[in-house]
Amino acid sequence: MADISELKTQRETGSDFMPKFDDKGLLSAVVIDEATKEVRMLAFMDQQAIDKTIETGVAHFHSRSRGKLWMKGESSGNILKVNSILVDCDQDALVLMCEAAGPTCHTGATSCFYRKLDGGKLHALDT
């Protein structure tokens, strides 16, 4: 069995996908609009969400509030078609490069990141 140092090296430099989940079995996933490079959302994925995303080509996540798998857009129709998945150096975060079928945010905004912090206050971004 490989020791911790060997696993770290494999994870950081190898070609095997070895997701490093937190103590709740999750990792962070940032969704980027492939065409505009706009950050659309941040969500969490467990192994089931990763597997379903790879299987279908549509973004699936783990809902922390509901404690279950959900497909982005399952009720709104605003699905995210995943074109590629980028994996960070220690495999505890992913970037999903996507084509969005519509707004990503549950508020109806294109992106969940529609405000900036300035002077201790939130201000709407110019769109």
From TrEMBL:
Catalytic activity: 1-(5-phospho-beta-D-ribosyl)-ATP + H2O = 1-(5-phospho-beta-D-ribosyl)-5'-AMP + diphosphate + H(+); 1-(5-phospho-beta-D-ribosyl)-5'-AMP + H2O = 1-(5-phospho-beta-D-ribosyl)-5-[(5-phospho-beta-D-ribosylamino)methylideneamino]imidazole-4-carboxamide
GO molecular function terms listed in the Swiss-Prot or TrEMBL record: phosphoribosyl-AMP cyclohydrolase activity; phosphoribosyl-ATP diphosphatase activity
Pathway(s) annotated for this protein in UniProt: Amino-acid biosynthesis; L-histidine biosynthesis; L-histidine from 5-phospho-alpha-D-ribose 1-diphosphate: step 2/9; Amino-acid biosynthesis; L-histidine biosynthesis; L-histidine from 5-phospho-alpha-D-ribose 1-diphosphate: step 3/9
Coiled-coil spans in chain: none
Classification via InterPro entries: PRib_AMP_CycHydrolase_dom, PRib_AMP_CycHydrolase_sf
EC number per UniProt: 3.5.4.19, 3.6.1.31
Protein name, as recorded: Histidine biosynthesis bifunctional protein HisIE
